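User: Could you check the structure of this?
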Amino acid sequence: MPSRSGRAGDQERFDDLDYLHEIGEVDLNISGCMNACGHHHVGHVGILGVDKNGEEWYQVEIGGNQARVLLGKVIGPAFARADIPDVIERLIDTYLEHRDSEAERFVDVVQRIGIEPFKERVYATLIKGRRIATESAPSLNRARS
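Assistant: Sure, the predicted structure tokens are below.
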């Protein structure tokens, strides 16, 4: 499988059609504000853009499912914009390692094993030595219904 790492060409790491076929169905929803117009909370992977002191940060949720009306769960503190492609790649890698078969979707793996393996993988391999937003930052707190 071709390497998908590195800052240059973040889009290219997800352009491999064989890799996309291997991944299967993953709904990735992105919202740019608290109004949630992109319905990030019901995406298998949901990303909410937030402002923290004038900088772009992204809160990541996993496990949402529009068909079954399940809201995703926040995996932890927000990520800087530059980290999001790596975060997505780590989430996908974790899914591929834990799925029972090619027929098991991302959201089904999250429901079966929970968010902890995804959270551990993302934060253990990505964030060492990098800034992350604190969970107590006012702009990252939001009401959940």
